[in-house]
Amino acid sequence: MDLKTSLRLRLPTTSLANSIAFAPRIWIVSLGCLGAVLLCIATCFAGELDVAPARIVLKGNFAQSQLVVRELADDGVLGDRSPDRTSVVTYRSESPTVASVDSTGCVSAVSNGTASITIQWNGTSKSIEVEVQDVSPNPTVDFHRDILPVLTRAGCNAGACHASQYGKGGFVLSVMAFDPVLDYQSLAVAARGRRLNLNNPSQSLILQKGTNLIPHGGGARFAPDSNDARILATWIAHGAPRPSNEPAKVTSLAITPKKRIAGIGAQQQLQAFATYADGSTRDVTSWTRFDAMDEGVVKVSKSGVATTHGKGQGAVMARFANHAEIATFVVPYSDKADLAPWQSSNIVDDFAKAKFEELGLTPSGVCDDSTFLRRAFLDTIGGLPTVDESRAFLASTDPDKRNQLIDRLLGLTGDPAKDTYNDRFAAYWTLKWADLIRNNSTVVGESGMWSLHNWLRESFRTNKPMSHFVSELITAKGSIFSNGPANYFRIANNPSDLAESTAQLFLGTRLACAKCHHHPYERISQADYYGFAAFFSRVASKSSSEFGIFGGETVVMVTSGGEVSHPKTGAVMKPTPLEGEPIEDPNDRRIGLANWLTQPSNPWFARNIVNRYTAYLLGRGLVEPIDDIRSTNPPSNPALMDALVAEFKGSGFNVRQLMRTIMRSRLYQLDSQPNVTNEGDERFYSHYRVKRVAAEALLDCIDDATMVKTKHPSLPLGTRAIELPDAAAGNTNPFLVTFGKPKRASVCECERTQDENLAQALHTLNGDILAGKIADGNGRVAKLVASGKAVDECLEELYLATLCRFPTTQEMAESRQFIASCPSPAEGYQDLIWALINSKQFMFVR
Amino acid sequence: MASHPWSSTRPDASNSASSLSLAALRASSAQRVVSRREILQAGAAGLTIPSFLNPTRLLANGGQADSEINCIFIWTQGGTSHHDTLDPKPLASDGVRGPLGVIETAVPGVHFTELCPRMAKELNRFSVMRSWNPKNAGHGVADHWCMSGRNVNPSLVYPCVGSVVSHQKGFKSALPPFIQLGAHVDRSFQGGLPGVLGLEHAGFEIHAEANVDKFSVRDITPPLNMELTRIDRRREILSKIDRMQRTADLQPAAFDALDEHYKTAFKMITAPETHQAFDIASEDPKLRDDYGRTSFGQRMLLARRLIQSGVRFVTVSDPGWDHHQDCFNGLKQHRMPQVDQALPALLIDLEQQGLLDSTLVVWMTDFGRTPKINPAIGRDHWASAGFVVMAGAGVPGGLVLGETDAEGGVPKSNEYFTENIVATMYHKLGLPLDLTVTANDGRPIRLIEGEPVKEWI
Questions:
Q1: Residue B271, CB half-sphere, CA atoms under 13 Å: how many?
Q2: Which of B4, B224, B232, B245 has the most A C-beta neighbours within 10 Å, making it the best mutation to test the interface with A?
Q3: What percent of chain A has pLDDT above 70?
């Protein structure tokens, strides 16, 4: 609340004081009250109340306004931590015939005029003015403005009730009132209008059932004498007028307060304000649906009173008229985070630190060199350093060695002689994006699959800006053999699928709900869905005989016709980006989409890419699920998200640069060992989140550790598993199947199942593939034995080859003892490398 | 919630740093102390210990955890033609009847086709429902529906009965509670999967050929003929290495999950009952002959052995029943003989071993096939009629339930649906009919609806 709308009272209530408070401060001084004021400033701030809104205007018979009363801090400033006193103060209307107020601070209009509401607490009392207008003996009740919100608030049109597929008891409503035409039909016309009694409104079925005066499966949704019942009754009494053809449109919804920081068991009344197309704003708290998004942290009552329950950060969602907004609640983990050792390296660290301070969350310390080495290699190129590379890194005393390693792995040193990992980097990220794009020879044929694979690989090898990448992909046409990205239009080949895949991959949003109805959690409507699908309605493909009639070549082309219609209204949809205006490109509608996606002001694309890469590196996206970005699913650290997005756009959508920024931060380099205070944190990166090494990378690591390569079918020996272009191996290679290589049937990130399971455990503990590599006559163990090296040297090599570090003194001693106890050194080394590979430090990126 | 691709977010129980000594593991199953940390972890974040590791949760779920009836579920994938097996229509026209002859069975007035001589003779050991209405003619959908009792639902995957048993009852011995023999279950519509119950309740799949002298199972039978002593030694050093890697008592939850899986895996690898179960070679050769020296036959024998070794639910899957063409020859030469031989053999064997009362045997298939024979001398998918066989666990033998019309197209009496079949299985296995579980997003999901087949209860 800013100064204009809230009243800070530092003196007992008098009209003089009121005018003083509204006057500029210099006049307070000049009025000679300085002494008294100064005294009060010194002693009276704590315990003083802030009442919002400071002045209420209620228009109409049914208007209501929810007060929020908060206690100021010692410095007199209203902040995120100011306690909420709304439910403990007492309210009294000085003119109850004009406006009434209940014990929760809800002010209702009674008759025209002005009234004063007195708020008392703890010996102090405040007063605010209420002006009531437009109360009439014959009030107008508008279907869109008044009736639909009543039904929504009462829960009548929830998906589990009358908005289920066949409704309940034959009464069908649209979910969250997204289809007013249907709703009016059901309410006033269908079934011979049995739900309304125009002659005797209170006998209407809708009221009798809604109040449970007649037994109602849904129970009592509102009281017979409630405001909502009166609204319905009045509308019915007026003959249940039809909704207007040009209803007043809500342009935005605002919740206050947007953020609250408190301990467990704190309450906060929320308010909701709707702004209409004509610029007017009204308090709609009484008709807003409040839902808790993280019940473990904060719960909320129907009337918008949130109560904190557990530590962490949670959101409350408010929905009104197909708009949804959130309020964030932070319940710190402790009073004070210990951030003394923290040294910020870059913007990531700055914002992370701010979040830790807010949450009272003490992060773990920085990881050691060997942990960093292995982690960086696996996260960037999906492979391990060689024994020599590990030795060199660990031995180096250069204080900047970590940054240099990052640059070498990402190919950003500027010196081609040092950027030696470029191909492996490209291979690894090709694998990732091929999974998402679902490159699969069973869908596009062998040649199509290779063509797309090669294009992907080239894109990542040359660090193509993501803006170019997505543009080339979604505007591709031509032969699927010669133009890799054209395969995108064979993998999904109708406007619906293309719209959903494109939205999920590049906007990070799941459109699918909106195909059939308004998205329940946000603004996206069916019209939005089909407007988006219209971008893809003029793409077709036909087979070509270039490679013979069974050659399988297909040509993707743009057609001059092809439309998408809204399934309910039948209207032809113009290609319209989400929350935007229609775009018509005369040549190829997809070009319009590509331009919209990549323009600097687009709020979706950069955010989605940034979010994905934070997930790939830090183990969890700022928004989770990673492809479910929406206003009601906020990032865990909005400021960090915004900063990374700005940097990403500024760098020209340079993904390697983005990775570099993240990896250089202290946040990325934290140890995965949790401390007692941050053990429960899964969201704020207070310790590095361990993750399983992905199936393909794991196989490669095992190959490298044992020095026995896997021969992949139809590919030359030496091809790594991360280089496999196709999905097929996800069905045939037993190791890859067991460890969850995706079959590329879904664009969802969740297709790669990463849960550890029994079959995986059995496979590495007891499987023949690993056992065979370890025992191989040309493998590492055999070579070590043949080399005649001393035991200690061999042990060192085994540790370096698997865990990228030297054994500790204790490990050395135990291992020596173990080798000595085995029938032969060969068996001993085999068993030891087997154990190292099965240990957690090998299996996980940590 | 989708878990991040390259993370492990398994909020599972920790194990108190228990010694992995062989003796401790060889001690018989599942009595484990729930550590204080597990309770804190489970409570604090609303996370739960996987149920198969927590005995106390089983009873809280309301299952009759003490009902010890196991199940062998035979799945002939593709849609076994009912006209040409258990529901012949010898009086129908040429285009419907088919070339196969009919034979009498042990029940007067009931006939099977000539492909089922042994089953005909042993009809008093099992019951056949001829009045099953599958209401579905799609592969994949059938696998889901018949195994879970629910039609395919785009917003959630219902668990198959085996997974429900695993979830409700957990491990009985070192072997997983739910095992699938053969890979012949169509997953296109998430059939035969644990769905909302979570991956840990997936059936453990064994694809190895059972019709061999020496049976070995990938990843369970030690590789390279490694001896148990060496496995023990390896386990010791792994446990030492793990202990040394562990820098503090606290470790990421994902590590705890791996610990649990390793423990279970080792138990499986080293437990005598595992090797016992897989040691088919030790079976009397005459018995192996009686089951039939076929892939299917030996799998049925293996199923009995698995039940005896503590497995609660075994799916025996068999491929190749989708006879759109060459139906009669295909059934006669390649498919029906092994089932006709092995199913009665199993029932006789179970009875002789005293296991019949505690083992429910079910034979289901995708759907029936068309009354009208097609130009490829086959039959196509038929959504309106089919058969189901049940035996054991109190199912009355010799009962032929319901009948189809003259053409074998539509049930005429005692029509039952897939949900009734699965409800019967739930009832027999001691699972509550109104069993409700919580999905990942907190929704309560009622697993099945429908009444059991009263004639089979």
A1: 23
A2: B4
A3: 92
Q: pLDDT-based confidence at A755, cuts 50/70/90? A: low
Q: Which amino acid is at B400?
A: V
B205 CB-near residues (< 8 Å, 6+ apart): A759, B179, B180, B183
| DSSP string across B300-337 | HHHHHHHHHTT-SEEEEEE-----SSSHHHIIIIIIHH
Q: Is the pLDDT of residue B43 over 50?
A: no
What tokens were used for B325? Answer: 């063409």
Range A472-498 burial, b when 16+ CB lie within 10 A, else e: bbbbbbebbbebbbbbbbbbbbebbeb
And the tokens for A378? 């696996």
Provide the 8-state DSSP code for A515.
G
Of residues A289, A299, A339, A345, the one with CA closest to residue A319 = A289
Q: Is B355 left (phi over 0), alpha (psi -120 to 50) or beta?
A: alpha
Strand partners of residue A51: A7, A69
Q: Do A834 and B231 make contact, defined as CB atoms within 8 angstroms?
A: no
- The tens digit of pLDDT for each residue in A669-705 reads 999 999 988 988 889 999 999 999 999 999 999 999 9
Contact A673 B248 (CB under 8 A): yes
Tell me which chain A residue has its CA closest to the CA of residue B2: A750
Length of chain B equals 457
- DSSP annotation string for A60-75: STT-EEE-EEEE--TT
Residue A772 has a CB neighbour count (10 Å cut-off) of 14
Instruction: Please tell me the pTM assigned to this model.
Output: 0.80
Give start and end residues of each alpha helix (H) in A124-221: 148-154, 180-184, 190-193, 205-210
| pLDDT at A522 (0 to 100) | 67
Q: From residue A655, how far is each of A348, A611, B49 by CA, in Å?
A: 16, 12, 39
Q: In degrees rounded to 5, what are phi and psi of residue A481? A: -85, -40
From the CB of residue A621, how many other CB atoms can be counted at a distance below 10 Å?
27
Task: Choose among B296, B305, B387: nearest CA to B342.
Answer: B296
> Chain B within 8 Å of A612 (Cβ-Cβ)?
no
Q: Does the beta carbon of B84 lie under 8 angstroms from any beta carbon of chain A?
A: no
pLDDT at B272: 86
If pLDDT is split at 50, 70 and 90, which confidence band does B64 have?
A: very low
Is pLDDT above 90 for A726?
yes
In 3-state terms, what secondary structure has residue B111?
strand
Question: Two tokens at B16?
Answer: 């108190």
